[in-house]
Specification:
heterodimer, A: alpha+beta, two-stranded antiparallel sheet, 7 helices, about 15% helix, B: alpha/beta, Phosphorylase Kinase, domain 1, Rossmann fold, Dimethylsulfoxide Reductase, domain 2, 4 domains, 6-stranded mixed barrel, 27 helices, about 20% strand, globular
């Protein structure tokens, strides 16, 4: 691994996109290791882990840091102060996709998140997690966007001479994955980052990674 | 032998993809340079893929007795390193958690483990008691030696022809098409035609999903800047349609009219190839209709060109448009392409034309328009059927594990052919039966009919296939057995299936690289592999099972198990001439039984110019396409284009083409006239929809292997009913709603899928058959082609309603 570029393929596939990304570097090196999936055998590829640990306080200019929040989440700073860690959204989720962030997420530990690489959000039409959120850090007036999917074309069967259209067929959001000349293309605008495409990707090395959203907008009127 | 550690492999498989993507024009995922790294080295060996009839080769990496890695084999002509989604995961097919590992016998309604000796003895005694009511049933998943052993066991040993196989449900109409046209089975063309053709026509063939590696071979020519026109003739939009230049939607059975319409226009416009036809073709039409009891008369009666021209006269573009639903302009477009001498046309088909109550007819018609227009026998000019099973050609068709065949394309009903076979097998004259056995549907119908009502088959031994899921009209052809106490179903398999569910005796089998094997793919390519890992538990080779039962029958005194000199049919000696007890599992691998059986079978391959090389040649090669002939220097050479003077060593020197197995005996091929006819069941007021069944990319056959591979299962977990958007809107059905599909024979609930992977024409519904929890064959019709006896899974009338 010593001669590899600073962003290795493995890191890309594990969703670690941000190595060497300015001030977050130290935290990334300290916190993001160990979350990766293990490559299987017989051509099974596994990816796991997501997002990044939030940087130590006071170093970033950004308002939010990449952690994969449930749909309808407000801006990260508001989320961290507003979320009461009541677990209501975790209990409301019908597929147990919402989990509590592990300690490596430091300040965000214990707040709700989704690991789209192990258990994707299924994009419920009635968004029970949002309904359950009393402190209104998950809000119906916020975009449902959690992140964005990214196709690693070097691993995707459709880009490497074979045929496959599974991700586009199973995507719950109309128009988020379009097939052009047999190859899937993700619309970064429409994709919500739910992670279903990653779960169904049958490529020997999973070709889809989900990136959490960097900047979520603050709500128009913050809840009291 | 390559060595590489696992970590390097995992890295390599991803990097290989990168290489292909970067080069753009490359069709295959290129193999990376594999450098030995630290850690235990993998052992890499070649094998054909376990799944479909394409015959891709894979490199299998093993470590500590397990298959741990798969790569496309760059040295293989067929796939040049590329695999489809199934192929990349083929190694995992071995490791489903519910592998069968011990023989199981039904006692008081429960399956209880028994010892192998007891299982073999039960089968032998069952056969001994009533050999004429026993039948074998296998498939194109039998390896060549396995099929050969089963065939010899039944035909030489038991003196019956009671053996049939899944290719009856799959390739039989292609066989009758080739036989009627060229007098000998299997395609004259090869996959190289895909590289050379200007126009590829899919006759009801979803190649992008069913033969993805071949379709890649075709469409990747476009990325190299070559022009290839793809015409998709289909009853539903598929992934193939997405990449086609022209998509022609036709009504079920409309293909008969389209082919005749092309012939009509070729003659009317004078663009048929007069020189080719006058030199190399005769015209034929149907004689007397076949009846159930006798072998169908495949020869027909001669007709003149003028009579032929008159016969296709009514098939004007307008008339064809009315019958088929394809516009007159598109029919003209097709005929103009066939009328051109400056382009090469490759017609391709699979189940769309074969699973057809007029399957023989449409096969003959498509060969016919290629002959009539001279689009034959040059690279790119071919009419080629593709197979669904890895050795449908190699085993069922060439070894002849069907109820009317003997090995090497010899016919059981032909006394001369029986004599030849008796010679090869060293049997006394008259041992082989001239009465043909029961074709698959008839066989299972008799097995499921009480003896008093004419059900005269009491024991069936199923190996390597799953009729409990694939038989049409299961309520008639498979399930009644449950209530017939005197019936005994023996099933050799690797996983529990819809067939083992009704089995009385289950035998655990080895699969794929857990045994030595040989397959023969769609393009006449014979392939070989060695055992690489051991089967789990007490699982044993199918071939050994057959041989062990034969030995037990010999011990019980069955006279048929000996040849005319009193030697056992499977007598095997070592290099010192001492007998090797191959009936005992401990000694089965003391010699290479595959090699012995194959070299014995080879002798049969000469009679129909299907010459096979010695076993050792296949060990070295990534398959060889027969006829494989030896040159003066001792080297062996395969043949690509059969009947073409430039490539086929059996064409007389100086002749451009020679159909040396001609039905008419004058070295000419036959152009058949067969009329358009309507199918036996058509939609009406009560059952207003056409039901078509088929496959999906991720699953192979009945999904018993691929459903156990997590990646494939997640990608395609269950069957569905694919509905046309307008129909769905009219019936108030949305994607995900449960619908009931009902025919006169049965019904099934399925989730609807609208605007998904495919889109049927209005009035059609498509359901895949891979899902053992959703058996669509409860609904299908068991009507079959009168010549090939292949059932039609593509058309029957159903009603659809939304479930509350």
């Amino acid at each position: 691994m010593d001669r590899e570029p600073s962003i290795s393929r493995r890191d890309l596939l594990r969703g670690r996109f941000f190595r060497g990304d300015g001030p977050g570097r130290d935290a990334a090196a300290a916190g993001a290791e160990g979350a990766g999936g293990t490559g299987g055998t017989g051509g099974t590829g596994g990816t796991g882990g997501t997002g990044h640990a939030p940087a130590p306080s006071g170093i970033g200019r950004r308002a939010t840091l990449p952690i994969h929040r449930p749909p309808g989440a407000i801006d990260e700073a508001g989320f961290l102060t507003g979320c009461t860690r009541c677990n209501a959204c975790v209990e409301a989720c019908p597929v147990d996709a919402i989990v509590l962030a592990p300690p490596r997420f430091q300040r965000a530990a214990g707040t709700p998140m989704i690991d789209p690489h192990t258990n994707p959000c299924v994009m419920c039409a009635d968004t029970p997690c949002i309904t359950a959120c009393e402190p209104r850090v998950l809000r119906p007036d916020q975009p449902l966007k959690m992140g964005v999917a990214w196709i690693e074309t070097m691993a995707c069967l459709a880009y490497t001479g074979s045929f496959c259209t599974v991700c586009s067929e199973r995507c719950p959001v109309e128009g988020a994955i379009q097939v052009t000349q047999g190859r899937p293309v993700i619309s970064a605008e429409r994709c919500t980052g739910c992670g279903i495409c990653h779960g169904v990707c049958p490529a020997p090395t999973n070709a889809i990674a989900i990136m959490p959203l960097f900047d979520r907008p603050a709500p128009a009127a913050r809840a009291p | 032998m390559l060595t590489v550690d696992r970590r390097a492999f995992l890295k390599a498989s991803a990097m290989a993809a990168a290489t292909a993507a970067a080069s753009g024009a490359s069709r295959a995922i290129a193999l990376p340079v594999l450098e030995p790294r630290d850690g235990a080295p993998l052992r890499w060996q070649k094998a054909p893929c376990r799944f479909c009839g394409t015959g891709c080769h894979v490199m299998v990496g093993t470590e500590n007795g397990r298959v741990v890695a798969i790569q496309g084999d760059q040295k293989a002509d067929v796939n040049r390193g590329l695999l489809c989604v199934k192929g990349y995961h083929v190694g995992l097919a071995l490791y489903g958690r519910d592998r069968l590992t011990t023989p199981l016998l039904r006692r008081d309604g429960r399956m209880v483990p028994i010892a192998w000796d007891e299982a073999i003895d039960i089968i032998a005694r069952r056969i001994m008691a009533d050999p004429k009511r026993f039948s074998f049933y296998g498939s194109g998943q039998w390896t060549i030696p396995e099929g050969y052993a089963a065939n010899k066991f039944v035909k030489a040993g038991l003196g019956t022809n009671l053996i049939d196989a899944n290719p009856r449900l799959c390739m039989a109409s292609a066989v009758t098409g080739f036989l009627s046209t060229y007098g000998v089975d299997e395609p004259p063309g090869v996959y190289d035609d895909l590289d050379a053709c200007d126009v590829a026509i899919m006759w009801g063939n979803n190649m992008a999903e069913m033969h993805p590696v071949l379709f890649s071979r075709l469409v990747d020519r476009r990325t190299r800047g070559e022009k290839v026109t793809i015409i998709d003739m289909t009853t539903r939009r598929t992934r193939t349609s997405d990449l086609a230049d022209h998509v022609l939607y036709f009504r079920p059975h409309g293909d008969l009219a389209i082919a005749n319409g092309i012939a009509h226009l070729l003659i009317r416009s004078g663009t048929w190839d007069r020189a080719f036809v006058e030199k190399h073709c005769n015209f034929r039409q149907l004689g007397a209709a076949p009846d159930e009891r006798t072998a169908p008369a495949m020869l027909g009666v001669p007709m003149t060109f003028e009579e032929y021209a008159r016969a296709v006269e009514p098939y004007t573009p307008e008339k064809v448009a009315e019958l088929s639903g394809v516009s007159a302009a598109d029919i003209r477009m097709l005929a103009e392409l066939f009328g051109r001498r400056d382009i090469r046309i490759n017609s391709l088909w699979c189940m769309g034309m074969n699973q057809h109550t007029r399957g023989t007819a449409i096969n003959c018609l498509v060969h016919g328009i290629h002959l009539l227009s001279g689009h034959f026998g040059r690279p790119g000019d071919a009419s080629t059927s593709l197979t669904g099973q890895p050795s449908a050609c190699g085993t069922a068709r060439e070894v002849g594990t069907l109820c009317h065949l003997l090995p090497g394309g010899l016919m059981a009903a032909n006394p001369e052919h029986r004599k030849i076979a008796e010679g090869h097998w060293n049997l006394e004259e008259g041992r082989l039966s001239g009465t043909i056995g029961h074709h698959a549907v008839e066989l299972f119908r008799r097995f499921n009919t009480p003896t008093a009502e004419g059900g005269d088959i009491s024991t069936i031994w199923v190996q390597v296939t799953n009729p409990g899921q694939t038989m049409p009209h299961l309520n008639r052809n498979f399930r009644p057995k449950r209530d017939l106490d005197d019936r005994f179903l023996i099933v050799s398999d690797v996983y529990p299936t819809a067939t083992t569910e009704l089995a009385d005796l289950i035998l655990p089998s080895s699969m794929w690289v857990e045994k030595n094997g040989m397959y023969g793919n769609s393009e006449r390519r014979t392939q070989q592999w060695f055992r690489m890992v051991m089967p789990p538990g007490d699982a044993r080779d199918d071939c050994w099972q057959t041989i062990a039962v034969s030995r037990r029958l010999l011990e019980l005194g069955h006279a048929g198990m000996k040849d005319r000199d009193g030697k056992w049919l499977f007598h095997t000696t070592d290099s010192g001439g001492r007998e090797v007890p191959i009936w005992s599992w401990e000694h089965y691998y003391d010699v290479n039984v595959d090699e012995r059986l194959f070299n014995e079978y080879r002798a049969f391959s000469r009679h129909k110019h299907k010459d096979l090389a010695p076993y050792a040649e296949y060990v070295k090669a990534r398959g060889l396409r027969w006829p494989v002939v030896q040159h003066a220097d001792g080297s062996w050479h395969e043949t690509r284009w059969r009947f073409s003077g430039f490539d086929d060593p059996y064409v007389e020197r100086g002749r451009e083409f020679q159909f040396y197995h001609s039905v008419s005996g004058d070295d000419r091929a036959l152009i058949w006239f067969r009329p358009h006819e309507f199918p036996p069941e058509m939609p009406d007021d009560e059952y207003p929809f056409w039901l078509c069944t088929g496959r999906v990319l991720e699953h192979w056959h009945t999904g018993t292997m691929t459903q156990r591979i997590p990646q494939l299962h997640r990608a395609m977990p269950k069957a569905y009913a694919e509905l046309n958007r307008e129909d769905a809107a009219r019936l108030g059905i949305r994607s995900g709603d449960m619908v009931t599909i009902r025919s006169r024979r049965g019904e099934l609930d399925l989730p609807a899928w609208i605007g998904g992977r495919g889109d049927p024409r209005p009035g059609d519904v498509f359901v895949p058959f891979f899902d053992e929890a959703k058996l669509i064959n409860l609904v299908t019709l068991d009507a079959y082609d009168p010549y090939s006896r292949q059932p039609d899974y593509k058309k029957c009338a159903v009603a659809i309603e939304r479930r509350a």
